[in-house]
Amino acid sequence: VPRYAQAQGYSFPITLAQAPLAAALSARNVVPLTVTVDRRGRLQQVIAGEMFEEDLLDLLALAA
Asked: What are residue 45's DSSP bridge partners?
């Protein structure tokens, strides 16, 4: 995956799901799916479905 992303010119961070995140994602069959992970790599939140600007601003405020 990282090699593919680099070949495509992607500049955002990419990670592969470990056990807790993989478990959270496997139960979801929804697009889009927003996953919030803290700086230590711990799953914080899974949001299934569409997000609006206000939702994103709330997430950004939590990250600050």
From this structure: 36
